Amino acid sequence: MAILEIKDLSKVYQGPVPYEALKKIDLKVEAGEFVSIMGPSGSGKTTLLNMVATLDKPTAGVVLINGHNPHELSKNDLAEFRRKELGFVFQNFNLLPTLTVEENIMLPLTLDDESVMLMKEKTQDIMEELGILPIRDKRTYEISGGESQRVAIARALIHRPSLILADEPTGNLDSRSAGNVMHLLEKFNDERQVTTLMVTHDAVSASYSQRVVFIKDGNFFNEIYCGDDRERFYQKILDVLAHLGGTNHEFQATRRT
Ligand SMILES: Nc1ncnc2c1ncn2[C@@H]1O[C@H](COP(=O)(O)OP(=O)(O)OP(=O)(O)O)[C@@H](O)[C@H]1O
């Protein structure tokens, strides 16, 4: 079953000179899949993610999440749909500095009228799973980038959404923390079949997914599957990136030694 289905999706940014950032993109993400989106700077990755995240409306085409088109919902229904169906992990973590780690993670549940005991239990479980119990009472400015992203992942997962949307989740992390974060996303995908769509410039991060979809100039360019040889998949990602053009800075496409 497809958790996400995108059909003929186009986006034209209006302005003095209208700009077509996405041109009739089709994409299906099956339940339990982990898919990365890559492409040169300006190719339309964030535009695509924003349409799926319902942060912006498509000019044409359809987004179906679990069979429902969120762009047809009223403002109130959309807020609830987003809260229930989607989990977000951003490059800059988007945590609330006035709250503790535990309170940040619990936040999505407080909007759902759950009992405090149940909320605490669920929060405790996910903190334990992500190894962040020791920092539960800290404020977000007292923890590291890697810890912050683990808190953000806990917050994204706690209400068990249908789809996790990750926008450059390792973009602000050193390679060790980035590796930890990718291991966690991979683990939740593996063990709980959490369907994940991630935008990244980083070939190493992309190599943790099962499929990479490349876009260029708003068009579908190519897609490759991991299979059972992750190292080979990584090299294949680098090859497509080299073919696509773009700078090393854009792709952080350093070959592993
Ligand atoms: N609000 C907007 N108004 C007009 N043009 C926009 C707007 N947002 C994005 N664009 C343009 O649409 C194109 C695609 O942008 P988008 O941010 O989706 O690319 P991207 O692949 O995510 O790039 P990057 O990797 O640099 O983040 C770019 O040419 C960009 O300048």
Automatic annotation (TrEMBL):
Xref: Pfam families: ABC_tran (PF00005)
The entry's keywords: Amino-acid transport, ATP-binding, Nucleotide-binding, Transport
GO biological process: amino acid transport
Keyword ATP-binding set for record: yes
SMART domains in the record: AAA (SM00382)
GO-annotated cellular components: membrane protein complex
GO molecular function: ATP binding; ATP hydrolysis activity; transmembrane transporter activity
Record-annotated ABC transporter domain positions: 4-242
Domain of life: Bacteria
CDD domains: ABC_MJ0796_LolCDE_FtsE
Signal peptide (UniProt feature, chain positions): none
Sequence similarity: Belongs to the ABC transporter superfamily.
Protein name per Swiss-Prot or TrEMBL: ABC transporter ATP-binding protein
Organism expressing this protein natively: Vagococcus allomyrinae
